[in-house]
């Protein structure tokens, strides 16, 4: 079951240790790839969204047989158990391929969001994109621990 994460910009050195830590732990369960896109910032929100969404679509439309999940603050919030069920269901009932998309700084336009059925939220607070990337990696790792009935640190 390959997992792909589409996100903007390279991870900064402040987050690199945690990024590598969770990435390596996930690789014990499945293949994972992080697809980094350079974020466009022209100063105009709508123009930024349009170009960044185009760049997302350029990357993910090449992924056949993937189930896509947008990380979107204004949608259903998931706890770790619900999140693990998404991954487990994907492994057992679907293609086994899953892609999580972390949006750009200006977020997704309504039109873009409407093109994707699956959206998840880890809460109503706004987090920096680098930090939500770490949170997502940690939750993917935790999901595999839950699925495999393995202990996770408390």
From TrEMBL:
The superkingdom of the source organism is Bacteria
Keyword check for Transmembrane helix, yes or no. no
Q: Where in the cell is it found?
A: Cytoplasm
Which CDD domains would you find in this protein's record? RlmH-like (cd18081)
Q: Name one GO cellular component term.
A: cytoplasm
Give the catalysed reaction(s), semicolon-separated: pseudouridine(1915) in 23S rRNA + S-adenosyl-L-methionine = N(3)-methylpseudouridine(1915) in 23S rRNA + S-adenosyl-L-homocysteine + H(+)
Instruction: Give the enzyme's EC designation.
Output: 2.1.1.177
User: What residues bind S-adenosyl-L-methionine, as annotated?
Assistant: 71, 103, 122-127
User: In the UniProt record, does the keyword Iron-sulfur occur?
Assistant: no
One molecular function GO term is: rRNA (pseudouridine-N3-)-methyltransferase activity
Pfam families reported for this sequence:
SPOUT_MTase
Q: Which UniProt keywords apply?
A: Cytoplasm, Methyltransferase, rRNA processing, S-adenosyl-L-methionine, Transferase
Q: Which family does it belong to?
A: Belongs to the RNA methyltransferase RlmH family.
Q: How does it assemble?
A: Homodimer.
Task of the protein:
Specifically methylates the pseudouridine at position 1915 (m3Psi1915) in 23S rRNA.
**Record-given protein name:** Ribosomal RNA large subunit methyltransferase H
Q: Which gene encodes it?
A: rlmH
